Amino acid sequence: MSLNTQGRPTAIENVDTSGQVGGAALLPDEPLLFEIGGPDHSGVDLDDIEIDDAFLGGQKRETPLDLPGLTEPEAMRHYVRLSRLNYSIDAGLYPLGSCTMKHNPRLNEKAARLPGFADIHPLQPVSTVQGALELMGELAHWLMVLTNTNAVALSPKAGAHGELCGMMAIHAAHRANGQDHRDVVLVPESAHGTNPATAAFLGYKVKPIPAAGDGTVRAADVEAALGPDVAAIMLTNPNTVGLFEPEIRKIADAVHAAGAYFYCDGANFNAIMGVVRPGDLGIDAMHINLHKTFSTPHGGGGPGAGPVVLSEALAPFAPVPFVRKTDEGFELVEHGEGSESFGRMTAFHGQMGMYVRALTYMLSHGGDGLRQAAKDAVLNANYIKARIKDRFSMPFGSQHCMHEVLCDDSFLNGTGVTTLDFAKAMIDEGYHPMTMYFPLVVHGAMLIEPTESESLPSLDAFADALIRLADAAKEGDAERFTNAPQTAPRARLDETAAARKPVLKWTRSSDA
Ligand SMILES: *Cc1c(COP(=O)(O)O)cnc(C)c1O
Predict the structure, then answer these.
(1) Is 422 left (phi over 0), alpha (psi -120 to 50) or beta?
(2) From ligand 1's centre to the CA of 289, what distance in Å?
(3) What is the model's pLDDT at position 511?
(4) Count of beta carbons in the 10 Å neighbourhood of residue 312
(5) What would be the CATH architecture of the domain defined by 107-362?
(6) Which of 94, 96, 98, 244 to mutate to test the pocket of ligand 1 (most atoms within 8 A of CB)?
(7) All CATH 3.90.1150.10 domain ranges in the chain, comma separated
(8) Cα 404 to averaged position of ligand 1 atoms, centre (Å)
(9) What is the C-alpha separation between 281 and 277, in angstroms, rounded?
(10) Options 3.10.310.10, 3.40.1210.10, 3.90.1150.10, 3.90.320.10; which CATH number does 389-499 get?
(11) What's the pLDDT at 67?
């Protein structure tokens, strides 16, 4: 057996000659294609071709093209092995709080692959894509019904992009009303980082609103911060500590009375869809992460979709394009003729595949099914909370939570184990860690969102693992945590260096 650079056994040598693979053999340290392949391997059998030098104007290569040839099984195994290194919602429970990693029904995939949706081009004449436009119109309709709002911009490609869209609509509305001087946006301290980033990106000053002792925002604190310079508030509901904002109506009224708009971060809509319509709470703009609430796949950077619903006050400023039904069929309004549209968010119309998946999810559930999904998401989170509450510390634990459970790290005091260590040890238990160190308002946060997709046995197995780990930490087995993970091909990466100094170019070691 040999050891890899992390000091753990490398996998390949661990393959038992009986052909049984197990343990570390399932954690191959997969080499790069360049390291596997070579100029003498190939998956195809091509005749040599004669190239006319004159035709290439003297630009013919002198040296062979240094691409790795691979046989078909080599290529196949490489990608299948890589795919096994991915933890995914299809492999197990994925408790990332605020991310709503729920099951994506295969029916969604089947619908998204229909050629009339999958194989169309954004520049096709609209007469040839009437079905796709109808689908977009239908999705827009149901998003407005679920939120009781007046317009929806489908094109934003993620939640953060939707925030930008909503805030641009707010900016356009203030300009149209001669309120250009408003340059402050109120953002509660527990907000997702994209909220202040969006406001700052548009040139607004960000004024933080503290949370009350119970983790929610007080209308009085908002009122105290409001003034003629405030353009908007960006408030998340349910909020990032997993609680419904009880004073949201009062906050909306105060914001409107002060001439500002109410941007709601709707990333947590999964907890209330079909139960509460945000329009009834007084919101003016809200993004909906289709890739969270409506089950379309996400992770690894996308694709996502973050449609933004808009109130009557902001509807005229909605971006183009949008779908309009006429007597002749569906048309795509590209230029916002005669409207006060602020322009466009993307070159084309957004993520068609996500629209198909989201509408498939909606229609296959029906209104009652969506409501049930939201209620089950809340029930499942409260079940986890009840199962682990004696071992973990929950800063706002005296209340029922919505769709996610927030713990801080005080239960680990004196154990020598940090939130990061705890998360790494979860990998050895077979689970993707929960969201860590977010929200920032509690120390060493652990945010757990099981979603409605998990069965009771699955929730119990997960709670058992959490309890096992909490007990091990308290019994003094710190090494189990500080040495974790033992069962992953890579252990503790320098994530900052990986993000700041990514190694994107492969160099043959003989050239290095
Ligand atoms: C996920 C999330 C966002 C951002 O959504 P993306 O699609 O990742 O850009 C914003 N706010 C909250 C509360 C979220 O959970």
Answers:
(1) alpha
(2) 7
(3) 56
(4) 11
(5) 3-Layer(aba) Sandwich (3.40)
(6) 98
(7) 389-499
(8) 15
(9) 7
(10) 3.90.1150.10
(11) 83
Give the pLDDT confidence score for residue 14 in this predicted structure.
39
Q: Mark residue 302 as left, alpha or beta (left: phi above 0; alpha: psi -120 to 50; beta: remaining).
A: left
Domain with CATH 3.40.640.10 in the chain: 107-362
Residue 56 has a pLDDT of: 84
Q: How far is CA 114 from CA 118, 303, 329, 355, in A?
A: 6, 18, 21, 13
DSSP structural state of residue 87: -
Q: Judge if pTM exceeds 0.70.
A: yes
Q: Which of 30, 32, 31, 43 is nearest to 69 (CA)?
A: 43
Local structure of 507: helix, strand or coil = coil
Q: Report which residue type is found at 262.
A: F
236 lines ligand 1 (CB under 6 A): yes
Q: Which of 392, 415, 408, 397 is CA-nearest to residue 465? A: 392
d(CA 156, ligand 1 centre) in Å: 12
CB atoms within 10 A of CB 203: 8
- DSSP code per residue over 404-455: -EEEBSGGGTTTT--HHHHHHHHHHTT----EES-STTSTT-EEE---TT--
pLDDT of residue 28: 63
By DSSP bridging, strand 205-209 and strand 230-236 are: unpaired
pLDDT of residue 3: 38
What token pair was written down for 199?
A: 């406001």
Q: Tell me which residues of the chain have a pLDDT lower than 70.
A: 1-28, 299-302, 338, 510-512
* Closest atom of ligand 1 relative to the 163 alpha carbon: 10
Distance 269 CA to ligand 1 centre (A): 11
Instruction: Give the model's pLDDT for residue 75.
Output: 93
d(CA 461, CA 458): 5
In the DSSP assignment, the letter for residue 236 is: E
Which atom of ligand 1 lies nearest, measured to the CA of 160? 9
Q: Tell how far the Cα of 159 is from the centroid of ligand 1, in angstroms.
A: 5
Residue nearest atom 2 in ligand 1 by C-alpha distance: 267
CA proximity to 260, closest of 342, 187, 164: 187
What single-letter DSSP state applies at residue 400? P
Protein residue whose Cα sits closest to atom 15 of ligand 1: 98
Using most ligand atoms within 8 A of CB, pick from 265, 295, 404 the residue to mutate for ligand 1.
265
User: What confidence tens digit (pLDDT) does each residue in 130-146 have?
Assistant: 999 999 999 999 999 99
